[in-house]
Amino acid sequence: MRAGEFTLAVDDLTVETGEYLIVLGPTASGKTLLLESLAGLRRLHGGRVWLDERDVTGDPPEKRRAGLVYQDYALFPHLTVADNVGFGLERSHAADLKRATGGGGSERAGGKPAGATPDGAAPPSRTRRQTIEALTGMLGITHLLERYPEGLSGGEKQRVALARALAVEPRLLLLDEPLSALDGPTRLELRRELKRIHRELGTTVIHVTHDLDEAMALGERMAVLVRGSLRQVGTPTEVTRHPADREIAALAGIPNVFDVEETSLVAGGRGVRARLRGGCELLADLSPGPAAQGPLAAVVRAEEIEITPGWSHGVDGLADGGGLVDGADGRVDGAAAGNRLRGVIATVQLQSVHALVEVRVDPVDAAGGAETGGCAEPPVFTVDVLRPQVEKLGLEPGLRVGLYFAGTAVHLCRAGAGR
Amino acid sequence: MNRIRVLSRMDWVFSVAGLLLLLFILVPLVATIFASSPGEFAKGVADKGVLTSLWITFAAALVATVIALVVGVPLAYLLARREFPGKNLVEGLVDLPIIIPHTAAGVALLMVFGRKGVLGEPLASAGIHFTENFAGIVVAMFFVSVPYLVDTARETFALVDRRYESVARTLGASPWSAFRRVTVPLAWRGIVAGSVLMWARGISEFGAVVILAYNPKAISVLVYERFAGFGLSSALPVTILLLVLALVILVVVRTVLVPRRSRRRGSGGRS
């Protein structure tokens, strides 16, 4: 798929019927282009689009029944809310739709809990008016029916746009950053609403966003798009725990990403010893990471790191190596191994709920007794703690702290940009 | 609206310059309107030749505009929406009639529609003539005034967010249906404004009309004939009539058709 100079390359992406797929990508990663291509609004320069076991690549948008909701809603300004919602129910092309889909909505009815909504299993004979009322009732916008879009709030516009798209019983609902233009509380409200609609109607949804929280809250599966190429597909947990490459790690909100110079298997094959650029070593579990080809990076999620103020030697059988402990001490609930580091807090950034603490890890030599080669350039770790912890532990710049994270918290991924 | 409290020196200079320009337009108009007594005006205007001329002129301009709606609006839509090789050339071509002197345009049209013209000769044998008749006036008016409709319509179409059409398509509308139910309702003001502009421009055309069809007399030809044959005072009443008419058209276009912020229109989805 191509638009001007921009090329969007998607090798293969399958969405199950009834699934809620999140496409996560930064701005200008080709998300809108992907949706417009699926809707049939862009001509493909190669590849095919299949919908319900049917090749729809050559079908115009009106034959595909893929509802598209743009980021700023694109409500028809010359029509009332009722006429916006009812736009796709005009007799003139309602007939076309029925012809295009044969059975007419039966595949969707299967995914619906019986009687969950007034929308129910819509009989084809239902009138335009009834459909409009059912949908606007479901979305709580019945009182707006006679208004024009211009005076509506962002949240109201979004609901109208959703109702308009749902009115034609789309086989696929395409949402382009549907919540990005909304303020905080409205965004949370509509997030819940989207989840409810999806549960009640069972419509297949592809929702693109750059917002990780939104992706985690809504996505059953997540596809990561970076600069026009599809980099990783998996559950939100898989993607955030095991990002496939460095850029995805950044998108997944992981601040601790370090280049790895060398890896070696730990004796007994229980883990991988990863030597970071600068000399420090981390112990990682054997994870379902990428095939170890090309340069690697080690990523550690900020919230997986435990921080302890002060430092006492020998606690929990700490090795003085200042980096890595083999699992021999057996302390960590069943995990093969853990990483213990010590250092000094460099900065503490308070946020609304969390606080980010940057810890400069000691060079091994300074910690006394370096056998593992020592860190010439000690890494800086960012640790995510809840705000009350900051006061409770007295975390402040200059404080000496110990860091602990399990080997399972360390994930090795591609250091480069994927393909 | 007390937003501007102090006029800067620049504002003063610019205002004076603007005022001079406005006076230059306004003074001749006002002077002309008051140059003739009401009695002379009534007598001059009530002349049967004047009324016939007016009727012929309005009708010819209307016919030209209707033809332009059929062939010009689709072109305007294509120019606003699609990219194609040679688009710049097409846009230039559409505007060409504005640039060339209208007498030259008349000569060029005569080469095509005249008795020995490329189209004129075969059509004449079929009994269709384009010189010294109503059709000739229409052809001349069409040629010189169609750019106003195409340009206005193109700009209007370009202002309609193409995603409205995209959404309409995903809701099951064919391209025709999306055009009819979304694009046209959002662009009609511009199309009508362009039509009125074209019509008004057609009415005021002299150069091309006089070369293609001196008779029947379009109103501009009539004014010229009276001025040349009987002098200023004879041309004056018709001139006044045309000026008043032009002012009315202008007011209509500006108040009714130029998009205002209203409930029914506005930027819509973009907020």
Structural class of chain B: mainly alpha
Number of helices of chain A: 13
Strand content of chain A: 25-35%
Q: Any idea of the CATH class of the largest domain in chain A?
A: Alpha Beta
Give the helix/strand class of chain A.
alpha+beta
CATH superfamily of chain B: MetI-like
* Strand adjacency order, main sheet of chain A: 6-7-8-3-9-10
Helix content of chain A: 25-40%
Radius of gyration of chain A: 26 Å
In total, the number of strands of chain B is 0
H and E string of chain B: HHHHHHHHHHHH
Can you tell me the CATH class of chain B? Mainly Alpha
Under CATH, the homologous superfamily of the largest domain in chain A reads P-loop containing nucleotide triphosphate hydrolases
Q: How many strands of chain A?
A: 21
CATH architectural category of the largest domain in chain A? 3-Layer(aba) Sandwich
CATH topology of chain B: MetI-like fold
Q: What's the total helix number of chain B?
A: 12
How would you describe what is shown here?
The complex is a heterodimer of chains A (419) and B (271). The model of chain A is unreliable at 99-124, 312-336 and 365-373 (pLDDT under 50). In chain A, helix 6 crosses helix 7. Chain A is of the alpha+beta class. In chain A, a hairpin with a 3-residue loop joins strand 17 (338-350) and strand 18. Chain A is built from 13 helices and 21 strands. Chain A is elongated and about 75 Å long. Chain A has helices at 31-39, 61-64, 81-85, 91-101, 106-109, 128-138, 154-167, 184-201, 212-218, 236-241, 246-251, 364-367, 387-392, and strands spanning 2-3, 6-7, 20-24, 50-51, 54-55, 66-69, 172-176, 204-209, 221-226, 229-234, 256-265, 271-276, 281-285, 296-300, 306-309, 324-325, 338-350, 354-361, 380-386, 400-406, 410-414. A six-stranded mixed sheet of chain A has the order 6-7-8-3-9-10, with helices on both faces. In chain A, strands 15, 16, 17, 18, 19 and 20 form a six-stranded antiparallel sheet that branches. Chain A folds into two domains: 2-241, P-loop containing nucleotide triphosphate hydrolases (Rossmann fold, 3-Layer(aba) Sandwich), CATH 3.40.50.300; 246-414, OB fold (Dihydrolipoamide Acetyltransferase, E2P) (Beta Barrel). Chain B is an all-alpha fold and 271 residues long. Chain B has a single domain (38-257), classed as MetI-like (MetI-like fold), CATH 1.10.3720. Chain B contains twelve helices and no strands. In chain B, helix 9 (175-203) packs antiparallel against helix 12 (232-257). Classes of the chains: A alpha+beta (419), B mainly alpha (271).
